[in-house]
Structures are given as structure tokens and as C-alpha cells.
Amino acid sequence: MWLAICQHAAVYRIDRNRSAAAFRRLIGQDTWTAPAVTDRYAVYNAFKNHQYCLAHLIREFKAYGEREGPDKAIGLALEQELLQSCRIHREYREGKILLAQRNRRLGVRKQRVEYWLDDGLANGTDALAKICGVLLEDFEKLWTFTRISGMEPTNNMAERDLRKLVIWRRKSYGTRSDRGKKFVERVTTIAQTIRKQGGNVLRFVQQAIECFYSRTLPPLISEAMGF
After folding, report:
1. Do residues 124 and 65 both lie within one domain?
2. What is the number of domains present in the chain?
3. 69 and 130 share a domain?
4. By the 8 A CB rule, do 42 and 159 touch?
5. Do the Cβ atoms of 79 and 65 come closer than 8 Å?
6. What is the per-residue pLDDT across 63-107, written as a single tens digit (0 to 9) for each?
7. C-beta separation of 32 from 48 below 8 A
8. Residue 137 backbone dihedrals phi, psi, to 5 degrees
9. Of 125, 146, 167, which residue sits at a domain end?
10. Residue 68 and residue 57: Cα distance in Å, rounded?
11. Which end of the chain is more exposed for a tag (fewer CB within 10 A), N or C?
12. How far apart are CA 203 and CA 186, in angstroms?
């Protein structure tokens, strides 16, 4: 299950694979210039303004912090630094601190994260050293949200909206036909987008059916967005 989401819309797509080809079928092109927050799956390198989800990294480093040996202190430190980075941004988003304050405090966290990644690369186990090396190479992808207004450091919104369809799939065992797949994709996309717009899903479906049988133009989900 693929999901592309923003504050005002959600697009779901069911595909047999989680591959570069499936990703291109979702976005409809080879590259994407709009800002995007994702995990570190390699196909997402097609995004030009790319933010690694810090929530995913926090969970990864938490697991390293639960180990014994050299990984423990490094994992715990990175987990806490990234947690603090998310909290600082949340304070800014909620209007508790100014942009300059946020950037100044995040600048300190950024230096500390880089220090601990260097430590992990030099002194961690092979597994930790590998992830630290990758993140040092893509270090700015941890902080894209600081440069783009309105961008978040996590993709928690997508995780929440994806969970709805995951629960449906577990209860219904999914769909096997192309027709069923397209129905689920379209109805879920419409319903979730309408909810984000503050609309009435049942009323919209009723209007769409009425328009179908009366052979008139169907209603728009959002006049502002033109669909």
C-alpha cells in the first residue's frame, strides 16, 4: 500500500510491489521537486527536497540504545538528540518560540547529532557504523525541515492515515481483483481527502451517485484544488 499525503489531500495506491517502478506509478514521473518526508528507502531519492523521517530514526537508535556494548551510549544519545529536535520544532509550530529561537536551538542539536554519528561510525558495531556512515553522507536530509516553511521532521501524519487501510486489510483480507483494487484506492482516497477538507463523506457519495444516474457533472471534492 502506497500513500501520498499532505494537509489537504490523500492519495492511496495498491501495488503488488514496493519498488522503484511502483513508486513511479504513484507519482507519475521520475523525479519530484515538491518537499517530501519519507523513510530512508532508496527509491525516495527521486525527491529533490527530501527530509528523512526523524521518527523512524528515533526508533532505530532506540533499538541500538537497548543493546549492550559500545552501541548503547551512542544509540541513546542519538535517540535523545533527535527527540529534542522534534520537540523544539513542535514548540515553534505551536507558537511557543520564535523561528530564530528554533533555529538557534536546532543548530546546537545538529552539531551534537553530527558528533554522535561520527562516534558511531568510528566506535560502533558494523551495523551501527553503517547507518551512521549513510546518515553522515546524507546529513542535510535530516534537517530539510529547517529550510522549508511548513515542512515537518516526521511523516507521522502519513503513518496515521495509512493505519486506517492496514486495519481494513486485516479485517477483510484485502482484494484480489483489479476492479476491487481500484475501488478501494478511489473510495479511500476520496473519503480521506474529504475528511481533511472537513466535508461529509456520505453526502458526497450520495451526490456522486445522483449525478451518475442523472448524467450530470459530478461534485468536486475541493473547488480550490480543482478536483
Report:
1. yes
2. 2
3. yes
4. no
5. yes
6. 999 998 889 999 999 999 999 999 999 999 999 999 999 999 999
7. yes
8. -65, -35
9. 146
10. 19
11. C
12. 16
